[in-house]
# Entry
Amino acid sequence: MTDNGVYTIMKVMIDREKLIEKLHTVPDDSLDEIRDFIDFVVERRSVVSAVSNLNAAQSEPLRRIWDNEDDDVWNDVPVR
# Structure
């Protein structure tokens, strides 16, 4: 692992520790809201990752379907 990689890992660990320290200062009645926000962020990343994987999986089959001489007339149609 490069020095830059070690630095990045250390920075992430320090950032997480700082976040945990801040979490200890949050009033108990706010913990549900924070948990909901964390769940939202994790879910959003999961959805973005799934969409990205779907796009990657579709790109080759769709390229074979749309990349042909019959459909070349559509290549210069302006996109709104």
Observations:
- The chain has a mean pLDDT of 87.
- Helices lie at 3-23, 31-66.
